[in-house]
Amino acid sequence: MTTIIDKIAWIELDDGRILSTRSHGKDVYYIPGGKREAGETDLDTLIRETAEELAVTIVPATAAHVGTFRAQAHGHAAGVTVQMTCYTAEHRGRPTPSSEIAEVVWLTYADRDRVSPVDQVIFDHLHQAGRLR
Hints:
alpha+beta
């Protein structure tokens, strides 16, 4: 039986770099976002998670679906898959580490080996599309 972890992520690109985060006690970087709570839409989750993790406010009308990606969930048993539904969106505020986030960084494709497996799939997609240098 396959277990799927349903997550929503915010893709913030700037000059061919992508905003990534590292949680306290973790050794890899993750694209900001998190798990959907009961009854939440993708947009609800995107807004809540970015506010909690980065202290920014997503502008709902600007949210655009980038893609949905799957891979083995980092730090979980074999067969546990994470499904990451990704959106770009304009925001208000400056991304600042908050809640469980220890560090906010801008990464390029050269940092691919420093991110979780599903983020590596997303990095590949963005790089092939010419959006991540």
